[in-house]
Amino acid sequence: MTEEKNDGKKDENEPAESFPTRAFDVIVLGTGLAESLIASSASKIGKKSVLLLDANDHYGNSFGTLTEARGTDETLFKGWSVPVCLTRSGAVLETHDVVTIDDDECLLASLRRKFSVDVAFKFSLGDDRLTEEVCNSEAYKYLEFKTLEKSFVCVGTSDGKTNGKKGEFEFVPVPASRAEIFENARLSPTEKRGLMRFLKKARDVALEGTGVNYGRGDDANAPIGAPGTEYTLDAEREDEGTFFANDGDNNSSSSSSKNTSMKAFLMESPNDLSEITSDAVAHCVSFCPSVTTKLRGRASEMLITYIRSMGKYGPETPQAGLIPLYGSGEVAQAFCRVAAVSGAITALRQPIKKIERKNSESHIEVLTKGGRVLTCKKLVLGDAQGDIEMVGFANDEIITPNRRESSKFCINRAVLVTNRSMVGSDEAQHRVFVAIPPAARPGKLYKDEDEFVCFATQLDYSSRCCPKDTFIVHLCQKSRRTVPLQDVFADILDNIFSKVKQNGEETKKPTILWGTSYRTPDVDDDIVESFKSDDFVKFPGADCNVTFEETVRLARSANGCLFGDDANASSLSFDTLPLFPKAPQKGEEREEEEEVTGDGETIDLNEDEYALLRDL
Amino acid sequence: MHGRKRESTASRLERRAKSLPKVKLLQKLHKEIVHLQNADDNEKGKDGGGGDDDDDDHDTKTQKKMESLMLTLTQKLVEIQPEMITCWNKRKARFCLYVVVRQQKNEEEEEERLKNVAKEELHVSEQGLRRNPKSYCAWEHRRWVIARLYDRILSSSSSSSSERGNEDSSLLPFMKDVVLREREMLETLLNADDRNFHAWNYRRFVVDKITRYYFNGEHDRMNEEEVADDVIENRTREEEAKYAREKISKNFSNYSAWHHRSVHFEQLDDDKNQASVTTETSSSSSPTRFQAVLDAEFELVSQAFFTEPEDQSAWMYHRWLLSQLDAYSSSSSSSSKNAYKIQTFQRELDRITEVSEMEPTCKWPALVCARLHKLLAKEMKLDDDFERRADVILKHSIKAKELYEKLLLLDPLRKGYYRDVLDRML
Question: What UniProt keywords are attached to this protein's entry (chain B) (predicted)?
Answer without folding.
Answer: Prenyltransferase, Repeat, Transferase
